[in-house]
Design goal:
Helices cover about 40% and strands about 10% of the residues. The protein contains 13 helices and 13 strands. The strands form three sheets. The chain has a seven-stranded mixed beta sheet, sandwiched between helices. α8 links the parallel β5 (about 165-170) and β6. α2 packs antiparallel against α10 (about 285-300), α5 (about 95-110) packs parallel to α6 (about 125-140) and α11 (about 305-325) runs parallel beside α13. The protein is globular. It binds pyridoxal-5'-phosphate. Pyridoxal-5'-phosphate binds near residues 126, 172, 203 and 224.
Length: about 425
């Protein structure tokens, strides 16, 4: 346990990953950034890579495409290495929402004689909305797993709602609000016992927690690249399809980037037999270039080392919050057991939104707010120091001690 600022500084001095912070654009005099679970920091190498990509466009014009066209799968394989996937199982394409839709439809078509989708009522909005939309379009029943909003989804919660009517179990690996982790292997085991497929949203897991999709029996998964993978705002998302399912599954958007020998422009749609069949149209090359750079530090260090630091930082945050913030009315909004938490810690407070605003306006700490009363703090291992955790909690304590937050009636801003 670290009980003083000098001890936190000593941790940083002994931290084997401390050198990675300089690979990112960081203003040491700026606010402490604990929002890398929403938008990861900018890697220092990204601007030059984008510049080079733009220059190549200017110089080589259409002649550059042969060097670009396979980026969705080459970058996908690099992401796959962080997910415990096999080469050829991950591609970069579209947005997370669109990929959720594509893979959910593919799974539902493969289980067309079943009519139930299991979901988590505490899941991120887009996951629930995609499920709702599909249920409305296809006359399906949505069945909510009885998860706890803070402690998360137990395997028994999944087992309670999965039976032989279930086509698809659609869940997140790490809950966006509480940070609660799901046991992927156990949930997949339950789903498979009943012949259902699993589709995971791993936006808050990829690059944050260790994953082993092959070992865990995951069927399908999607995730963002702009959070822990540092691909930048709106960077294209990834999708994963287990290799032995690829030839069997069909996605609903029959685009030419999924077509076998796409430049033959054949009469009918005849998709590639592999992960490329889940591509749609022309990929964003600037977006892919940025994702590629964003992965470098993660791949160099590997998830075990990153997780070793992340889990310590999250535990340190929880300890400091307990000591300094609980007496000021803050509650833990993440699982009580450390080994059920992901890469961020959530804290509840009745004035969470005014507190979030005060911290941002005073330039001390950047966290984000989620309805109804939660602040999320993500100490991303690549660029967060132990001393940042210490200082962030002290700044939050100071902001709370000053009081007056009840009087702040400023409505929630467009983006929180
Ligand atoms: C769990 C989860 N899924 C999906 C998304 C976003 O998907 P998209 O990139 O399509 O906006 C987010 C964004 O924060 C998320 O947290």
């Amino acid at each position: 346990m670290i009980t003083s600022r000098p001890e936190a500084q000593a941790e940083d001095e002994g931290d084997p990953l401390a050198r990675l912070r300089q690979r990112f654009v960081v203003d040491d005099d700026g606010p402490i950034y604990l929002d890398g679970n929403s938008l990861g920091r900018l890697p220092a190498a990204t601007a030059a890579r984008l510049q080079a990509t733009v220059e190549r466009w200017g110089r080589d014009l259409i002649g550059a495409w042969p060097g670009w066209i396979d980026l969705p799968t080459t970058v996908g394989d690099r992401i796959g290495a962080l997910l415990g996937a096999q080469p050829g199982e991950v591609a970069v394409s579209d947005s997370t929402t669109v990929n959720l839709y594509k893979l959910a439809v593919a799974a539902l078509d493969a289980r067309a004689n079943r009519s139930v989708v299991v979901y988590d009522p505490h899941d991120f909005a887009t996951v629930r909305y995609v499920a709702q939309g599909l249920a409305a379009q296809r006359g399906l029943t949505l069945r909510a797993a009885p998860s706890d909003p803070i402690e998360g989804l137990e395997t028994s919660d999944v087992a309670a709602v999965v039976d032989d009517e279930v086509a698809l179990v659609l869940l997140s690996g790490v809950n966006f609000r509480s940070g609660a982790r799901v046991d992927l292997a156990a949930a997949a085991g339950v789903a498979h016992t009943h012949g259902a497929l699993t589709l995971w949203d791993l936006s808050h897991a990829a690059g944050a927690v260790p994953l082993d999709l092959t070992h865990d029996g995951a069927d399908l998964a999607v995730g963002c690249t702009y959070k822990y993978l540092n691909g930048g705002p709106g960077a294209p998302a990834w999708l994963y399809v287990r290799s032995d399912l690829q030839a069997e599954l069909r996605q609903p958007i029959w685009g030419w980037f999924g077509q076998r020998d796409q430049f033959a422009m054949g009469e009918g749609y005849d998709p590639e037999p592999d992960v490329r069949r889940f591509l749609t149209g022309t990929p964003s090359i600037l977006g892919l270039a940025a994702v590629d750079v964003g992965l470098d530090a993660l791949i160099e260090v590997g998830m075990p080392a990153l997780w070793a630091k992340t889990s310590r930082l999250v535990a340190f945050l929880a300890e400091r919050a307990e000591v300094r913030l609980r007496p000021l009315g803050v509650s833990l909004a993440s699982p009580t057991e450390a080994d059920r938490r992901g890469g961020h810690l959530s804290l509840g407070h009745p004035q969470a939104w005014p507190l979030c605003r005060r911290l941002a306006q005073e330039g001390t700490v950047v966290v984000d707010y989620r309805n109804p009363n939660v602040l999320r703090l993500a100490p991303v291992a690549l660029y967060t120091r132990y001393v940042d955790v210490w200082d962030a909690i002290e700044a939050m304590a100071e902001a709370l001690q000053r009081g007056g937050l009840e009087g702040d009636t400023e409505p929630r801003s467009r983006v929180t």
